[in-house]
Amino acid sequence: MPHVIVKLWPGRNETQKRAIADKVIQAVVESAGVPATAVTVGIEEVPKERWHEEVHIPDVDRKNASIYRSTRSS
Q1: Which residues have a Cβ under 8 Å from the Cβ of 33 and sit 6 or more positions away?
Q2: 7: which strand partners?
Q3: Catalytic one among 2, 35, 47, 58?
Q4: Where are the beta strands (DSSP E) in the chain?
Q5: Do the Cβ atoms of 21 and 58 come closer than 8 Å?
């Protein structure tokens, strides 16, 4: 606890993915006050052409109340 899933388009190498995971862990540790050993991060690559139906609709549109940050204008 906690577990964070990062979904993004394919194209990052393993070094970039590890950097993303490290920064997410750091942010969770600092913000939630949990030890780094308690945090897990998964990275799921979703092709651009499937993004809307596999990510946006189920994770953004249908879970709008749980979205805390967005750069989309209201």
Answers
A1: none
A2: 44
A3: 2
A4: 3-8, 40-45
A5: no
37-72 tens-digit pLDDT: 999 999 999 999 999 999 999 999 999 999 998 887
* Residue 35: DSSP 8-state: -
Residue 74 forms part of a structural domain:
no
Asked if residue 71 is part of any domain, the answer here is no
Write out the residue range of the structural domain in which residue 23 sits.
3-66
pTM of the model: 0.89
68 touches 32 (CB < 8 A): no
Task: Clarify whether 2 is annotated catalytic.
Answer: yes
Q: Is the pLDDT of residue 32 over 80?
A: yes
Cα separation of 49 and 43, whole Å? 18
Domain count, the chain: 1
